Structure formats: structure tokens, C-alpha cells
Amino acid sequence: MKPLSMMLSVLVIGFTSSTVMAEGASLSSASLPNVSPANSDLVNRGAYIARAADCMACHREDYTGGVALETPMGKIYATNITPSKRYGIGNYTEADLKKALKEGRAPNHMLYPAMPYPSYNGMKDEDISALFAYLQTVPVVDEAPDYETDLPFPFNFRSLMLGWNMLNVPSTESREGLTQTQQHGEYLVNNLAHCGTCHTPRNSTMGFDNDNYLSGAQLGTWYAPNITPDKSSGIGNWSEQDIVTYLRTGELDQRVFAGGPMGEVVSHSTRYLKDTDLNAIASYLKTVPVVQTDDKVHPVNASRLTAPLNESITHDLLAQKDYLAQAKAEVQGGSNSPEALYLAACGSCHGVDGYGQPDARYAPIVGLSSIRREKPDGLINVILHGVDGATNTSPKMPGFSEELSSEQIAGISNYVRVKFGSLNSSDVNAADVERVATTGADQPFLIKYAGLLAILGIIVAIVIIIFIVRAIIRSRRHS
Ligand code: HEC
Ligand code: HEC
Ligand code: HEC
């Protein structure tokens, strides 16, 4: 869909030589796996395209598939795309791969759009050729994934996707008036990296709601925030360099962390991209039409932000342990007060003062954007389900949905938002926690009622047929 003369010049040259420079320390000089001087330039370029298009997010690092995608229609499992003739795509020609990527047609069946072909629809032929050459070199695994997709009626009729595709593919259009760099960024964002599959809300047919392009969408229990350049609810205050740093390292100034699905995007894909490509993405994101949503990010109120207790405590795990014990002993308001709950459930990692334990890679949470949002949903989700960050190697944050009541989670959320987020006030309640715990359950109308609609459709069709038959019989009688 996108003219892309730059793509070649940008991508062809040596992925092997790590020109990738990390801004943050944690992921410095990530070199691209699967790239080897023994392989042809075409194959190495294909390996890079696979990273940029994040095939591994769903087909796994070894391409054996099996990752389940939760959709409103049910679970859809990614398939084996190693060159196995029996279980993978060993019999594919390049034309077959092109059809699968651009039209969602496998040789014998239609694919579900859980495979992001509505975005890959705009992929350049030379990128598909490179990807094809690369996928031939992937080790064969003669095994099917553990689970097979089995959607309920009527979605088990894959040919229904023909109708869906007419409405929703291609999923985006290229905009006029962009510089070459921005056009390249647009191609990466819309087609290869398919950012909109998570960040653009869906319309009633589950296609992209392009009037609200990249303005944020619910993603199961996670929320993919507004990444349009709106200053209050989007990333309008981020510099281009901020965007690059975030995509490269999964964090920004210890104020924003890429958790959950975004953590995976960073760890499988964007951290491997070349500076030129990340810069192009950042430059393009700055040109996207501004959409303001009601999920405002409250600015940091520096005067209200807690200061670190003292450097030696923040950096010394043992000193911190003692300090935590002391704080727990002195806490006011009983063991069910928000502060006591915070100290008991969160303090051992994030510290009494919220500055964590940086040397042990326990994250600081003071001033984080996720606790400064108007909607507490992201924070509640993190407390309920835990977080598995892109850059986080040591203890993952556990979820507390079993240990803590909704009331208690609400109390901790308010405490964290006011004390560490510098908000003036916060009124999260148990009902908010329960709502977040059950989101993902409300589906767009058509999907929810599709089974019903399909049955109604069949009944209507039968009624029409009966009428026609009766009319024919009557006209015969009359004649
Ligand atoms: C967001 C998840 C996701 C990403 C990213 C993704 N895929 Fe898929 N892919 C799937 C799912 C799910 C299926 C199975 C769809 C179905 O059953 O209809 C699939 C199916 C396929 C198929 C069809 C295999 C067959 O059954 O014949 C091919 C080929 C394929 N993917 C290649 C790729 C390539 C190459 C990339 C990267 C450019 C990629 N996919 C990225 C989820 C994904
Ligand atoms: C698989 C879904 C998914 C995809 C694909 C995805 N994102 Fe995200 N993104 C998320 C989620 C979820 C978050 C929130 C993470 C959190 O709160 O820890 C997020 C957060 C972000 C943020 C931080 C916003 C803020 O205000 O904190 C930026 C910037 C971002 N994504 C950019 C991108 C770009 C650019 C792409 C494409 C290269 C992309 N994302 C692709 C799911 C996704
Ligand atoms: C076992 C240690 C541990 C405990 C206990 C813990 N956390 Fe975390 N938390 C972490 C780590 C590690 C991260 C950073 C994950 C990453 O790298 O993205 C994190 C991240 C966060 C974030 C940022 C998420 C984002 O995407 O912006 C918030 C907010 C948070 N924790 C709050 C809490 C609260 C509130 C509690 C108590 C209910 C708690 N944590 C308990 C380890 C912990």
C-alpha cells in the first residue's frame, strides 16, 4: 500500500554488524538472532523483516506456533510456520506466502484475522521475497501445536472471512504529504509492525475504527493507550527520541514501562530495529491526527512527589528490609489501611518510598505514567494480574487477584496514585476493580450476536423459500 523505495536502502545493509545502539543500558547492543554472515543478504534481510513484523509474537521464536489469541469469538491458535511439509508451510511457494500475508488465504482455507493480514496487506513484494527466503532456512519442526482452533458456529465457517475482508482489508490507507522518512515510518507502523492491531479501537464489525486511529483500545485485561500526539491523553509530550528510547528499551526515564503485550512487542521486535527505522516510526507518529480521549494522563506535580528516603536505603536491599519492617510496625490505621496494605503487598519490591531497589532491578513506581492516568484501569490490571516487562529479568511482579479483595486493591490503588503519582485525589472503588477484572467480556454487538444473527438469517431464508415455493405452487394451481 505504501511506496517504499527507502525500505531497501535502509534494510539491505549488514544487519550482522550491530549498528543498533541502545539508548538505555539494559538492552544495549541487542544483536539480531537468526542473522549470520553464512546466510545470503536476502535471507538476513528476511530475518530482519520477521522481527519488524513480529512474526514471533504469535508463531514463537522457533516458528512452531501454538500461541493462543483471545478473540471475542474464542481462542485462535497460531500455526507452525517452519518448513515442515506435514505440519508447517514446507509446501508453500512464494506466491502462497504472499497470499497468506496479504489476503489471509492459506492454500486450502481462509485465515482468521488474528493473523494480522489486514495490516500485512500493504507489505512490499521485496520484503515478502526476503521473508520467504528466510523462512526456508528456519529449522524444520515436524509437530503440530498442542491446540487447534475450534471456533463456535458460525465462525467455524472460514469462508465468512471473505465478507469480512471486503469490509476491512486493507485496514489502513496511506496519507498524503508525508516526507520520505515519515512514509517509511507509516509503512512500519501500519503494515509491518501492525501497531494499530492493539492501539486502534475496533468498530462494530471488528475492523479498525480509523476515525480513532491509534487512540487506544482495550486488549483483554490490558489497555493499549492513546499514542496519537495529543498532549493530555496521548504522547504529545514525548519527543521523538523518547519514542525511540521506549521502543528500544521498554522504558522511559523510569516514568513509563512497557508491560504485558507491549513488553512482548519490545522484546521480540522493536528492540532489534535499526535506529533509522525507530526514528522513522517516531517521526511518523508525530504526524498522526490528534485524537483526544477522556483518559487524561495527569502531569507530574513535582512538589507533591515523594523524595527518595535516602540513597543508601534505596540501594541497599538489607537496609531496605529493616526499614520496611520498621515502617510496617509504625503504620497507622490498622492492618487494612491502604498504607499497611501497600507495605505488606508491594513494599518489599517497590520500597516504602516507592523508589524500588534499582540494583536488584525492582522497579521504582514514583511518577509512573500508568499511575497518573485518569482511568485507573491500567494500574488495577497490573495489581490484579501482575506484569512481565520487556526489560525485567529479575522477579516478575505477581498478580494479587487471589490474595487481595477488590476493596483492598481499590485502597492500594488510591494510595499509590496519590502518594507516588502526585494526584490531588483518587476515588477508585471496589466496583472499578470488579469492572476491570471482568473486562474483555463485553464484545462488539455483531460479534456477540453473530450466532443469533446467523440463525435468524437462516430462519429468514427458510421463510422466504417457503413463500416462494407456495407462490409457485399457487400459480401452478391457477394456471
Ligand atoms: C498477532 C499474531 C500473529 C502474527 C504477528 C503473525 N501471525 Fe501468522 N498466523 C497467526 C494465526 C493465529 C494464524 C492461524 C490463523 C487461522 O487459523 O486462521 C496464522 C497463520 C499463518 C499462516 C498460515 C499457515 C497455514 O495454516 O497454512 C502463515 C503462512 C503465517 N501465519 C505467516 C506469518 C508470518 C510470516 C508472520 C510475520 C510476517 C506472521 N504470520 C505473523 C497469528 C499471527
Ligand atoms: C500486542 C499489542 C500491541 C502492539 C502490537 C503494540 N502495542 Fe504499544 N502498547 C500496548 C500496550 C498494552 C501498552 C500499555 C503497556 C503498559 O501499560 O505497560 C502499550 C504502550 C505503548 C506506548 C506507551 C504509551 C504510554 O502513554 O504509556 C507506546 C508509545 C506504544 N505502545 C507504541 C507502540 C508502537 C509504536 C507500536 C508499533 C511499533 C506498538 N505500540 C505496538 C500494546 C501494543
Ligand atoms: C516481587 C516484586 C514485586 C511486587 C511484590 C510488586 N511489584 Fe510492582 N513491579 C515489579 C516489577 C519488577 C515491575 C516492573 C516490570 C517491568 O519491568 O516492566 C513492577 C511494575 C509495577 C508498576 C508499573 C507497571 C507499568 O506498566 O507501568 C506498578 C504500577 C506496580 N508495579 C505497582 C505495584 C503494586 C501497587 C504492588 C502491590 C500491590 C506491586 N507492584 C507489587 C515488582 C513487584
UniProtKB/TrEMBL annotation:
<keyword id="KW-0677">Repeat</keyword>
<keyword id="KW-0479">Metal-binding</keyword>
<feature type="domain" description="Cytochrome c">
    <location>
        <begin position="333"/>
        <end position="420"/>
    </location>
</feature>
<keyword id="KW-0408">Iron</keyword>
<keyword id="KW-0812">Transmembrane</keyword>
<keyword id="KW-0349">Heme</keyword>
<keyword id="KW-0472">Membrane</keyword>
<keyword id="KW-0732">Signal</keyword>
<dbReference type="InterPro" id="IPR036909">
    <property type="entry name" value="Cyt_c-like_dom_sf"/>
</dbReference>
<feature type="transmembrane region" description="Helical">
    <location>
        <begin position="449"/>
        <end position="473"/>
    </location>
</feature>
<protein>
    <submittedName>
        <fullName>Cytochrome c</fullName>
    </submittedName>
</protein>
<feature type="signal peptide">
    <location>
        <begin position="1"/>
        <end position="22"/>
    </location>
</feature>
<dbReference type="InterPro" id="IPR009056">
    <property type="entry name" value="Cyt_c-like_dom"/>
</dbReference>
<feature type="domain" description="Cytochrome c">
    <location>
        <begin position="180"/>
        <end position="289"/>
    </location>
</feature>
<dbReference type="Pfam" id="PF00034">
    <property type="entry name" value="Cytochrom_C"/>
</dbReference>
<keyword id="KW-1133">Transmembrane helix</keyword>
<keyword id="KW-1003">Cell membrane</keyword>
<dbReference type="InterPro" id="IPR051459">
    <property type="entry name" value="Cytochrome_c-type_DH"/>
</dbReference>
<dbReference type="Pfam" id="PF13442">
    <property type="entry name" value="Cytochrome_CBB3"/>
</dbReference>
<feature type="domain" description="Cytochrome c">
    <location>
        <begin position="41"/>
        <end position="139"/>
    </location>
</feature>
<dbReference type="InterPro" id="IPR014353">
    <property type="entry name" value="Membr-bd_ADH_cyt_c"/>
</dbReference>
